[in-house]
Specification:
Low-confidence stretches: 1-21
Radius of gyration: 19 Å
Helix content: 40-55%
Structural class: alpha/beta
Largest sheet: 8 strands, parallel
Mean pLDDT: 90
Number of strands: 10
Number of helices: 11
Strand content: 5-15%
Order of helices and strands: EEHHEHEHEHEHHEHEHEHEH
CATH architecture: Alpha-Beta Barrel
CATH class: Alpha Beta
Length: 312
């Protein structure tokens, strides 16, 4: 039986090898809008609220070859209590680890409300046969992952095999069961905003709960214009279909000022409905400490260095 076409954002995604035109992105206008939004400021009384929201939206991440159970345990402790001397600071949204460390994270975070996320599908390259990707996805869910961060096959995408990318996401989404699926586009390898838009539409059509910019393993990773491009895809899809998808910029976001720029852009593009950890995340390995320093400064009037906070 032939597959029914999938309609997303007014575009038909067939099961064949090509997509119809999905529209071109005006790169100049996109970058000008991102630059304008980056200059927006928020009132001082709102800054504490914004910084605390940024913490609640973080996926505290460790994805290194030298990761150990002890390191993951330390990160889980920090995820639950980011600032040990200020119990009013909220926990982060999730801890993201490699598959072999999901069990450690799950045990440490039990009962805290902090989710466990795991990368899968041959992260970060995505260059494995689909059966292996599906098996790995099923395994991390069995280990206890609440969320799965998969990577698309950029080689397939860049060679025009869009249906293959679509079908892989569909199969991985099915393997996730009740776990949420974040689809990493690795935008730094896609080359153009048009490709970012096309890849975002494919991921949404295939069932992504979130679309994510980057693995954090290449440069450039997340940028404000690229994230704005993805936000506009999510906005367009929601306007035409009512379907809601989350967004996760990851990699290269290290300062609280940047986090606030992303939150302003999110609000101006998608509105208050998306201002929640359920629909927006930061992929963060080094952002948290800067936000904690700024938060302490706003609350006490005194600026403290990163030495006051744990590295992990």
């Amino acid at each position: 039986m032939a597959k029914a076409p999938v309609l997303v954002g007014g575009f038909e995604l067939p099961s064949g090898p090509r997509l119809p035109r999905v529209g071109s992105v005006d790169a100049v206008a996109l970058e000008e809008r991102a630059a304008t939004l980056a200059k927006r400021s928020i009132k001082r009384e709102s800054k504490v609220q914004a910084l605390e929201l940024a913490i609640r939206m973080m996926d505290l991440t460790t994805l290194e070859g030298q990761d150990t159970p002890g390191k993951v345990a330390a990160i889980c402790s920090k995820a639950m209590r980011p600032d040990p001397v200020d119990v009013s600071v909220p926990p982060v949204a999730a801890v993201c680890v490699y598959p072999s460390l999901v069990g450690i994270a799950k045990e440490r975070l039990a009962g805290s409300g902090v989710k466990v996320a795991s990368v899968a599908t041959a992260f970060p390259s995505g260059q494995s046969p689909i059966d292996i990707k599906v098996a790995e996805t099923r395994a991390v869910v069995e280990f206890g992952a609440d969320e799965v961060d998969m990577v698309i096959d950029r080689g397939a995408f860049l060679s025009g095999r869009y249906a293959r990318v679509f079908d892989e996401i569909v199969r991985v989404k099915d393997a996730c069961g009740e776990a949420h699926l974040k689809v990493i586009l690795e935008t730094g390898e896609l080359g153009t905003y048009d490709n970012v838009r096309r890849a975002s539409l494919i991921a949404i059509a295939a069932g992504a709960d979130f679309i994510k910019t980057s693995t954090g393993k290449i440069s450039p990773a997340a940028t404000l214009p690229v994230t704005l491009c993805m936000m506009e895809v999510v906005r367009d899809v929601h306007a035409e279909t009512g379907h809601i998808v989350g967004i996760k910029p990851a990699g290269g976001i290290r300062a609280s000022k940047q986090a606030i720029q992303y939150l302003v852009t999110l609000y101006e593009t998608l509105g208050a409905e998306w201002m929640t950890p359920d629909l927006f995340r930061f992929g963060a390995s080094s952002l948290l400490n800067d936000v904690l320093m700024q938060l302490r400064k706003e609350k006490t009037g005194r600026y403290q260095s990163g030495d006051y906070f744990t590295i992990d």
